Amino acid sequence: MVSSTEYGSRTWELLLTVDHQHEDVKNEFPLQVTGDLHVGGLMLKLVEEIKIAQDWSDYAFWWEQKKCWLLKTHWTLDKWGVQADAKLIFTTQHKMLRLRLPNMKTVRLKVSFSSTVFRAVSDICKMLNIRRSEELSLLKQSEGTLKKKKKKDKNSKEPAIEDIINLSDSPVSSGLPANAGLYSKTMTPVYDPVSGSPASSTITWFSDGSSSEQNCSILALSHPTCSPEMLAEMYQPRTLADKAKLNAGWLDSSRSLMEQGVLEEDQLLLRFKYYTFFDLNPKYDAVRINQIYEQARWAILLEEIDCTEEEMLIFAALQAYHVSKLSLSSETQDSTCESEVDEVEAALSNLEVTLEGGNKSNILEDITDIPKLADNLKLVRPKKLALKAIKTYWFVFRDTSISYFKNKESAQGEPVEKLNLKGCEVVPDVNVAAKKFGIKLLIPVADGMNEVYLRCDNEDQYARWMAACVLASKGRTMADSSYQPEVQKILSFLQMKNWTMSSQAASEPENVDMKPECFVSPRYIKKFKSKQLTARILEAHQNVSQMSLVEAKLRFIQAWQSLPEFGLSYYIVRFKGSKKDDVLGVSYNRLIRIDMATGDPITTWRFSNMKQWNVNWEIRQVAIEFDQNVFIAFTCLSADCKIIHEYIGGYIFLSTRSKDHNETLDEELFHKLTGGQE
């Protein structure tokens, strides 16, 4: 038997704070507890003490000093390490959060502050009808990207009142579990092919009420109303160091929002973090396609990614087209809700869009033939004193290598040089108007990158050789099923660039109510007068005027993906053994070391050649081992090394996705690849 005095010596007082809205009830409750009391018992004891009749199911303990949730309610206080000085707050796990979407709209919704960010983003995407949540994450704007905005805000007389879409009544937002069958392939959501907005029959699968339908339409439609003044107020990176600031604030996907200092009603950015857009399908992805399009549009307008004048006009034409099309689609939008598409027919047409592969008759031919290219091309080698040596050779492309000979007759002998393109950088050097079709190859060698320029004679030749080079850089040959689609993609992009000024387009600038400053980046606004820009955008517009709205968005995304810098996230790093800082570009299939001063690539390492990588958490150093005994190590200066570690693991995780099992995500594998052990 234990006496009462001995028992009393085992108990101790724990002061608990309750986060509730009842003003007439106190917030702090001292309780007598023992170390072997489990957290669930403590919660029960506290609720009995509070004496307020309400639903406490969403409440949990937050340990302020340790910055962690006590979610394992079967653990005892001793196991958690809770002592009398612990500050425990009994608070809701779901709280209101403001999210700035890629289209610059802000939504306010209830999000789990206790789940990992990976799971929270998954719930958010279900709420917004965005598939493939693993491609997105939450970004906290870094101080460097906010300084300019604050200075501008001081000068503005009337701050703009932000239009916030409130989604706080959504089932997921209320803390209820999301519908497990939300993206089941047996249901075929139908989207209007003109506006890209969901038809009314599908809304019932996602949410309830007309307000949800309206919000869904807002997220699926683009409203390009930016002005030069608005652009001037936003952060525009000028250098690689500036671009590195954009990627410094990614949240850790393995930890909760609360653990990372995010508070209720804070604003975060929801962005596509990983540039591998898997299984894009207009029938399912109206919102997703629009948000990818918007992220691409703002990246181009704010010069986060470089493009040529010709490419900028293509992007401007596709945007300008949206403006005129939207005014028409808004009138016809109501009538589209009445038109229903048979589910079986929709599923069959979806199958045609989704399935990959070429013509059936070519399958045997692809297996038996070893594809190769052979053509006369011009080789351009940069020389000193800014001179270039241009000479025509007979080029043969086989497997992943290019060999060139003095002429066609000598092709049976030894080549002048053989270039292995595996792991190289392929950069287009094209000006359709000037009939310039060049391919810039940066081939890895022991002491850096070897530059080689190839010049083609025409569009067809360029498309075939460019597609072969792109595949070879990834270690694939022309026998790969993606070769022909890659050729067609390049040809369609060249066709968009290939326009001639018609007499009608020449006379239209006076009559068209267009503000070209809204569709091009500030650099081109300074370069051209308004009428000149309007005329040139109308020229480019001729090649895209027959497209549907969704097709125009997809073409915009494809053109964005064709840019040399597409998908690169930049970080300032210091490589082991180096005395100066470099920039590291992280892409979906490679890492690139870039000279910070010149912007030139120094070395490329492919993920396909990577054997292992690890992080020394004490000195915050990332170490990677590649094939052929190549080792690199670096510390990250512009962000936490955990962000780069998660990027590498995240891209490897996304490369494991397959259409055979694309409905479920292996969250455990994601955390294994990205979590790390700190």
UniProtKB/TrEMBL annotation:
Put simply, this protein is called FERM1 protein
- Source species: Phainopepla nitens
Q: In which family does this protein belong, per the annotation?
A: Belongs to the kindlin family.
The protein's matches in Gene3D superfamilies, at most eight in alphabetical order, are given as: Phosphatidylinositol 3-kinase Catalytic Subunit, Chain A, domain 1, Pleckstrin-homology domain (PH domain)/Phosphotyrosine-binding domain (PTB)
Cross-referenced InterPro entries, in alphabetical order?
Band_41_domain (IPR019749), FERM_2 (IPR035963), FERM_central (IPR019748), FERM_CS (IPR019747), Kindlin/fermitin (IPR037843), Kindlin_2_N (IPR040790), PH-like_dom_sf (IPR011993), PH_domain (IPR001849)
| Domain PH, chain residue ranges per copy | 378-474
Keywords from the named record: Cell adhesion
Write the gene name. Fermt1
Entry superkingdom:
Eukaryota
GO CC entries: focal adhesion
Which Pfam families does the UniProt record give? FERM_M, Kindlin_2_N
Please name the GO terms of the biological process aspect recorded for this protein, alphabetically: cell-matrix adhesion; integrin-mediated signaling pathway
Instruction: Give a yes or no for keyword Transmembrane helix in this entry.
Output: no
The Gene Ontology terms for molecular function here are:
integrin binding
